[in-house]
Design a protein that fits this description.
The complex is a heterodimer of chains A (about 350) and B (about 300). Chain A is an alpha/beta fold. Chain A contains 11 helices and 14 strands. Chain A starts with a helix and ends in a 15-residue tail after the last helix. Chain B has helices spanning about 5-30, 40-60, 60-85, 90-110, 135-140, 145-160, 165-175, 175-180, 185-210, 225-235, 240-260, 265-285, 290-295; strands spanning about 120-125, 140.
Amino acid sequence: MKELLGVVAAAVIAVFGAADAFAQDKVKVGFVYVGPVDDFGWTFRHDEGRKAIEAEFGDQVETTFVESVSEGPDAERVIRQLAESGHDIIFTTSFGFMNPTIKVAKDFPNVKFEHATGFKRADNVSTYSGRFYEGRAVIGAIAGKMTESNIIGYIGAFPIPEVVRGINAFTIALRKVNPEAEVKVVWLNTWFNPGQEADAAKTLLDQGADIITQHTDSPAPLQVAAERGAFAFGQASDNSQFAPEAHLTSIIDDWGPYYVERVRAVIDGTWESEDTWGGMDVGMIAMAPYASTVPDDIRAMAEEIEAQIIAGDLHAFAGPINDQAGNEIVAAGEVMSDEQLLTMDFYVEGVQGSLPN
Amino acid sequence: MSLTITVSILVSVIAAATPLLLAATGELVTEKSGVLNLGVEGMMLMGAVTGVAATLLTENWFAGVVTAAVAGAAFSLIFGVLVLTLRANQVASGLALTIFGTGLSAVIGTPFVGQPLARLPVFDAPVLSDMPILGPLLFGHDVLVYVSIGMLLAVAWFLNRSRLGLVLRAVGESHDSAHAIGYQVIAIRYGAVAFGGMMAGLAGAHISLALTPFWAENMTAGRGWIALALIVFASWRPLRVLAGAYLFGAVTIAQLHVQGFGIPIPSQFLSALPYLATVIVLVIISSNAARVRLNAPACIGKAFAPAA
């Protein structure tokens, strides 16, 4: 069903694209999404980025998107059809679109491609991703100030560097403001399973946590926290509507500024293949409005941390950082390199249990 | 481990077991009549999405639950027409029903994504709910928890003690004999399929209205398949279905607690435990072919064409 919709959408785009290729010199921008635009998470945020392009450039651009494209052969067909129908720049917004993007890009050297979260580039293919861990540093500090039991529950998807980095950034910030606090992690080995995410939240609360944070995609843990009178943080997009009483803030992916900048580069003819790993300084990561349950002094602290990260005065992985055994990984006055961040495979001091490998 | 933790673990187990029990109870009746419906996952998703839709549109949880049950039953009749009237292959038709249900529920659910709704009301008894241990175990659950146990007991009585249940089992064991002595094989199987669909619809509603009150694509996340495995696990005995559903719920919850307590067992292994348990039980049961023959309805999966 989804595949059929994708094909139909691509065919419609192809027909209309061919028809007005003669009529205008607008810059045509295409998007390929892995989920539906209204998933209130990952894809929703990318579509907000697309809308930012329209708001910025108005009549100068024309944007199209194909949603719910499955990762695999279908993706290549959709990307190819976007390229054939005269799109100047195409954003492919899921890790699994990496190989199809590279393949199609070879056949269309004049079309620019932008692939999210991947690592393969070409002369006409850029990659981009967000430093989501900077947001984890902000919520870690909030959790450290607000916890009473000094146990924070963390629901992880897969034990990969991306998620481990989030846990460690959170824990470092947590213990900077509250050295007594510890993080309890439960792994689910899935990005999305609402029932299990809810069960995991219940488990963590039963075991003494009073704040829940998650690196999985459904709002179920927030709802459980609300039911039990605990607090929680949302994921990828502002999730406050699901549990206004429990929701403290969410880390928001904001692709708009990056998308606007890249489309401007195409319009100006200055586009080049690049690798971007953007954080709060470029606005790619932002915090949802803090809930009224966050006391004023803690809100001020969180805003100060945001400001310091943006100014470059604070790094989420600034030394001294110890691993669980107490060995110093990063000395005082130093920060971790991007290389170390991208391959992170250990827990810092303050995380309970051992990292599955 | 303190008593309060033990009690709250048990409460979580009850919640996790309920959708499995609801779906498995329905499928048990379907299979006892000699029909194998692999579309449980699809029917659950249809129940989940229509339950959310009706609850949001009418602002009435009861309407949501009833709609989910009716939608599950109606959706199962598509399968019924295919395999009972048109005599299509049951395995292929059931798989198709799951795939169709996954897609259709996503389309129906589009306007309802991201809309929170109130959880199903819970049943609290004055004074009794405050009893230590027994209070939280017996009370404070949503209505579908009680329905799931009530329906299981009703089905156990129906299959083993009622005349119609005996007829239904006869149809499942030998449709030709049942037909020869004048029973309406096709009509009875339609009824069993619709009952299975209704229960799967309720199972979906329990997920989308009680466990995690919102709609998201594919939110049943494979529980329909576990329900199917449960039937074999229980060797088609109602009370073993009950035990199996709670055992599965317990394994699901226990693996999370093991992780939380920091017991060093790989999380990937723990996540796989419920499925591993199914495989092991299936192996044990299948090791004795006679036992499988004894319990499995003899006509399961076979199309019935009355001799002209």
